[in-house]
TrEMBL record:
Gene3D superfamilies: FAD/NAD(P)-binding domain. Residues 17-297 form the FAD/NAD(P)-binding domain. This is NAD(P)/FAD-dependent oxidoreductase. It comes from Streptomyces violaceorubidus. The keyword Oxidoreductase applies. It holds the Pfam family Pyr_redox_2. It catalyses: [thioredoxin]-dithiol + NADP(+) = [thioredoxin]-disulfide + NADPH + H(+).
Length: 321
């Protein structure tokens, strides 16, 4: 496995950590910062696959608006390392529990921890339309709050993959008056009367028929081509990826999950505590709509709860003796 130069590797990875954080995105690094400042021995295990990697910039994070995701994470690693937090570029492939948690890494090592914070995020499955994956994060987008300002007033297309795409088309109409909803795999009869009235009120054109491909010229999106051969000029296309939560570790531990329209996520309390004693989660591992700023906040909140839990657990053990 190739090691990212921004990671520090502990070649021993021996003994038991107070906390192992699985996932080194905004949530995981924010949690690690709190843990390090709380004088706990902490390890971050990161496979280096952040959800926002296709984007050149992130938006809406106060004081970090416009920063590249890669730069944000690099600075975060530097900050947590200053407090003695260890970081390893590896993947957690299994977990079990006896007195402590045992986390097995793809590289062959097993690390142990008194508590776990799982911030493994989710994976986006894009519609299987030629051009979508290649342009994703550039002029094929999914979130108007992340990218709407940068593409404001351009010619928007929305590629429908379910009736929920109507909501996306209505939302993006706030950033452009020129929006076309391509029904693609959605039949017109699946749209409710309220959907049609709202689309009309927003000035959104509805085009039935399957989308065959996106048109790209000189490395720029120029339009959408339907299966019947007709073409529509568009410079931006919004899609709704299928969210695939990365909950494998929590499922192995028996965490309770809740079904949502965007996948199954662990049941948590306000601090991110799961139904498994000693396991917390944050970021997109606990919900589809967590932006970077939310993930960082959730990681902080989870770590603070873990610190308090460890302190009280130690005090209770001392009292019992």
């Amino acid at each position: 496995m190739t090691q990212n130069k921004d990671f520090t590797r502990n070649e021993d990875l021996s003994g038991t950590y107070d906390v192992v954080v699985v996932g080194g995105g905004a949530a995981g690094l924010s949690a690690a910062l709190v843990l390090g400042r709380s004088r706990l021995r902490a390890l971050v295990v990161d496979a280096g696959e952040p959800r926002n990697a296709p984007s050149d910039h992130m938006q809406g994070y106060l004081t970090r608006d416009g920063m590249s995701p890669a730069e944000f994470l690099a600075l975060g690693r530097e900050e947590v390392a200053r407090y003695g937090v260890e970081l390893v570029h590896d993947r957690a492939v299994d977990v079990s529990r006896d007195e402590d948690f045992a986390v097995r890494l793809a590289g062959g090592r097993t690390v142990r921890a008194r508590r776990l914070i799982v911030t493994t995020g989710l994976r986006d499955e894009l519609p299987d339309v030629p051009g979508v994956a290649e342009r994703y994060g550039r002029d094929v987008l999914h979130c108007p709050f992340c990218h709407g300002w940068e593409v404001r007033d351009e010619r928007f297309g929305v590629l429908a993959t379910s009736p929920l795409s109507v909501h996306q088309a209505l939302m993006v109409s706030s950033w452009s008056a020129d929006v076309t909803l391509f029904l693609h795999t959605v039949a017109e009869r699946e749209l409710s009367d309220d959907d049609l009235r709202r689309l009309a009120a927003a000035g959104v054109e509805v085009v039935p028929g399957e989308v065959a491909a996106l048109r790209v010229e000189d490395d720029r999106l120029t339009g959408v081509r339907l299966a019947d051969g007709t073409a529509h000029e568009r410079t931006v296309v919004f899609v709704a990826p299928k969210a695939v939560p990365q909950t494998g570790l929590m499922e192995r531990l028996g965490a309770e999950l809740r079904e949502t329209p965007f996948g199954a996520y662990p049941v948590v309390d306000p601090t991110g505590r799961t139904s498994v004693p000693g396991v917390w989660t944050a970021g997109n591992a606990m919900g589809f709509a967590e932006q970077v700023v939310h993930a960082a906040s959730g990681g902080y909140r989870a770590a603070a709860a873990v610190v308090g839990d460890l302190i009280m657990s130690s005090l209770d053990a001392a009292v019992a003796q």
